[in-house]
Amino acid sequence: MATIFASGTGAGRAAIAVIRISGPAVRDLLTGLAGALPSPRLARLATLRDPATGEALDQGILLFFPGPRSATGEDYAELHIHGGSAVVNRILTTLSAFPGLRPAEAGEFARRGFANGKLDLSQAEALADLIDAQTEAQRRQALRVAGGALRRQVESWRAALIDALAMVEAELDFSDEADVSAFDRAALRAALDPIRAEMRAALLEAPASERLREGFLVMIMGPPNAGKSTLLNALARRDLAIVSATPGTTRDMIEAHLDIAGLPVTVVDTAGLREAADEIERIGVDRVLARVETADLALWLSTGGGTPPEGIPPGVEPLKVSTKSDLRPPPAGWLGVCATSGMGLGALLDAIALRAKARLGDGGSSLLIRDRHRAAIASAFSALDHAVEDEKDLEFAAEDLRSAARALGRIVGAVDVEHVLDAVFSRFCIGK
Ligand SMILES: Nc1nc2c(ncn2[C@@H]2O[C@H](COP(=O)(O)OP(=O)(O)OP(=O)(O)O)[C@@H](O)[C@H]2O)c(=O)[nH]1
Ligand SMILES: [K+]
Ligand SMILES: [Mg+2]
């Protein structure tokens, strides 16, 4: 087994960088770099030297975690060194030259931790989310699952299923053919009902948790010159989109990723909806109409109201926004904004936050954060539905229970997962 190393901190100028090292050569390496092996789990200040030449490379803090009590389950070390690129590069070069060491691949530390039982697959996925988290709610959700919320839930469901399976198998073993109907199906149903209720609740919440990872999608729509691009720029507080008095200015969709009340919100400026004047504009309009199908909310912009929200699909909530309220007051039922002065923007942000909160939740009770999780629970749930059917042959009920348990095993990475593992861990950055 190779000993792997990588910088765990981002590239570029920084006060410190943390180099992570894991594998059987860690002890020899630390001794070579610092002259002696540091005491386990105690920070030690040391001059790091090139083991080949004795040349001083940097002064830093060493941490040594003997396996299996480490992040990877192997002997593991961290070098906290100065973060300048020359320092980091020289240390990495020195590590490369050390016998038994090679640079880590993306996600390789986490993968070794998984292989050694330090975390399950759902926790690894949530760790990747935690690193990607941009908002409070995303952080909360990722931390919850990384902390093992889904792992514990799945383990408790599996344990209950295995108990139920034992009950069915005992019946199969000890009853003769004629007596099978005496088996108490009510007992099996009673054992499975609470699990099915919990799974149903988790499945209902899953779309919100998945959406929280992706963000709440808001489309800014309306006729040309309604002030859509001006509003996007005001919300993003940056000059993202071109604004001009010419109708049909915007053709491509322009996105801003915002944090609104701790929730991830993607706001998209779009081409004004009208009978397109040319082919490019028509393509722009077609794209808007396609994308809005997946949106959560459409801001329908119009100056002074009037135009009915056409082109907004039934599943997408429209919010009527009357623009340029410095020129014309909003009609009843419209939210008035003036993007050039900022008037009404607070109320608009509140209205978006309210809807985003309702759609995404706050991450505090999330369990199924990937479609992979939802698919596995859905398949376990339907297997349990079959298992409790009346007149079900007991042999088949037992097979349903086993298939439900296997589906649960896929979530934590206990069964047939090689390709899932590759997909999950390769999405990590190097050094995780
Ligand atoms: N007075 C006033 N003018 C505004 C306001 N918002 C936008 N405008 C002006 O309205 C014109 C059109 O603004 P845009 O933001 O380009 O409108 P749009 O809806 O993106 O237009 P298209 O991309 O062409 O569909 C520009 O001249 C803006 O300066 C506002 O709140 N008050
Ligand atoms: K315009
Ligand atoms: Mg525009």
Q: What small ligands are held by the chains? A: guanosine-5'-triphosphate, potassium ion, magnesium ion
CATH architecture of the largest domain: 3-Layer(aba) Sandwich
Rg, nearest Å = 29 Å
Q: Count of helical segments? A: 13
Strand coverage percent: 15-25%
State the CATH superfamily name of the largest domain. Answer: P-loop containing nucleotide triphosphate hydrolases
Euclidean distance between termini CA atoms: 18 Å
Report mean pLDDT, rounded to a whole number: 92
Number of domains: 3
Number of strands: 12
Q: What kind of sheet is the major sheet?
A: 6 strands, mixed
By secondary-structure content and strand pairing, the structural class works out as alpha/beta
> What's the SSE pattern?
EEHEEEHEHHHHHEHEEHEEEHHHH
Bin the helical content.
40-55%
CATH fold category name of the largest domain = Rossmann fold
Low-confidence stretches: none
CATH classification class of the largest domain:
Alpha Beta
Taken from the alpha-carbon principal axes, the silhouette is flat
